[in-house]
Each structure stands twice: as structure tokens, then as C-alpha cells.
Amino acid sequence: MAGIAAIYAYAGCALSEAAVIALMPGQSNTTRRTPRRRITAAGAVVLALALATAAMVADAHAAAAIRLLLDRPIDAMATPLAVASRATFAAEDLSVTIVPGNGATGGNRDVFARLAAGDADMALADINALIQYRDRPDAAALKAVYVMTNAAGYAIVARRSRGIRSLSDLAGKTLGFVENEPAIAFWPALARLNGLADEDDGKVRLQRIGAAVREPMLSAGQLDAVTGLAWLAPINLRDHGIPAGDLAVFRYADYGVAAYGLAIVVSPKFAAEQPEAVRGFLRAFNVALRMTLKDPAGGIADLLARMNGANRAIELTRLNAIIRDDILTDEVRRNGLGGIDPQRFSLALDQLSEGLKLRAKPALADIFDASFLPLPDSRRLD
Fold this sequence. Notes:
The protein is of the alpha/beta class. The chain contains 19 helices and ten strands. The strands form two sheets. Strands 2-1-3-10-4 form a five-stranded mixed β-sheet, with helices on both faces. Strands 7-6-8-5-9 form a five-stranded mixed β-sheet.
């Protein structure tokens, strides 16, 4: 625990003394009040030494165990978790086991089912898939507690050689989609917003495909475009021999879709029984995310230690795209990391409902619990 203030200083957080005290195990984010005195990087190190006695007491306690699921195999998206595993989880007295997904279609559904069954405590998963899961009458009350990617990475990836250089060029073309992926649920809204929903000869032809054949079918010319993730599908397609210059990537977020992306999701049982562990996890994750934003290459080094045979350049390219397009949005620069804007969330729900027939439109509080978020000062980027 003695290193927490120094880690925050490295990550660029200008914290009040109250904020640093709140990082100590057992301290609530809201109940401890002290005078607000700003701490510089040097002051943070001094304060870290002052916390050494408290740290020795904290070290005597058994670390809280957390089992966290991923909805996909480990890749660049998991970089902040890899950084936290090395640098910040232990400072919060946490022992975190990260369980990767297998890459199969329906990974989000599997994650939520396992959380509901008590097989894990938390997950990093798509918040729109969570909305779909929570619409089930038998759904457990899983909630997101921290949004990592402020913009969803959904995209349409097309080949210029098939005559697609702008989104409007999709008219009359064949678009491959993977059923149950959140990207296709937002297609009706994307089409409506961009004049592609007309019932005429220019309508986009949708073709259901399997996730495993997405890139091969586009590469072979059997499709004109596919839905996917902007930071993943284009790089995979290059591995299938399609030159980068032949790819056109249309991010949903650039064409009016308001969707949020990946979030930390917690089971109701774990949140009720170990709320301080949830808060500690999010403090550690928030610092690790900031460290990743400051030093992506260093974060990739932590990630590669958890991957077998990964290509450093590819994963770094993916991470930089995630940071640029999905994390460091205008909203995050205004409001800070981790949160949700209620008006935007309502708009995103309306757009999602165009592709998913929800039984009822959920309230923000049904999906997102902001009470576990780290203090605002630690989430601001200024």
C-alpha cells in the first residue's frame, strides 16, 4: 500500500490528500473527509512513506480473491488488466485471477451465465450485450460498474476493390454479420441514420455468417463487407492477404451510433458481500488504465507476458487504436474515465432497440451502478 501514492503520481493523477487516504483498504470513497490539499508527484512519494505503517497493517490481512472473466481470448483490450496484475492489484490487497474466453460466438452470453451461476465475481464484457442479457425475465441483476471503452469499437470493414469507399457505397452490396454480436443489433440505427434503410433496389443485403469465416469470406470475395471490431478485424484481414490500402473501415461511432463499449461487470452477490473489494478493484484498474494511456508500449510488455506467441507490433497497433478511438473520446476528456452520460445512454438504448426487441427499456440504474467508481479527481485526465 505504501506504493499507491507513487503509482498515482506516475499515472498523472493530481489527488487530494483525502483521495489518497481513500485508497487504503477499508476506506470508503465517500465517507472520509479531509481538507483538500493538492499533492504533487514529489509530495505523493512523501505521503507514501507516511502511509507505510498503515501498509504493514494492511499486508497482515489476507488478500481478497477475485475471479474475473473475459469475453474473448487475451489480446490488446486486456492490457490495463495485465498492467494492474503487475502494478496495482496487490497494492489494494487483491488477488485477481483473469480467465480468458475461448473466442466462440456468444462469449458475452457465456460470461453473464457464469457470473450469474457464481463461477466468477467480475467480468470485462460488452455493456450492450449486458443490456440484452438483463432483458431476460430470469436474468440475474448483473451491473456494470466502470466503463472502459467510452465508444463501442463496432465497425463495418469493406474492400475498396469491391467499389466501397464511403458508407453510402454499401447500397446494393452484401454485408456479412455474425448473429448475436452487438454490432448487428445497431445496424438498423446505423442504416437509418445514413440513408441505407430504404426498401428499394439499393438496400444492403445482409448475410449471416459464422465468426470463424468472417475474414476468409471477405478475403475470398464472397462478401463485400463485414461487421466487426475496428481494432481487430482490419488487422486480421491483413493477415489473410488483403492489403491495408484495400480496406475501408467505417466506425459506428463516427456515423451517429451512441453506444458505449466494454465495461467491468460485477455479480450482485459479490457486490453485496465484498463492496470494498469492488471499490479496491476499480481503484487499481483505474490507475492501471491511466498507466496504459501514458505508456502503451510498457503496457504491451505486461500483456505479452500473458500471451503465447503474440506479435508485439500487432498488439501495440491494436492498443493504440483502442486508446485513440474508443477510450480517449471527447466525453472522457470532459468528464473523466469510467462513467456514463445519462442522455447519451438513453439515446444508445433507443438505437439498440431498433435492432433488438427489448421487453422494456431499462433505466440507467438497472444497468450501471456508479456508487463503486473511484473518486472523480482520480478519473479526470486534466
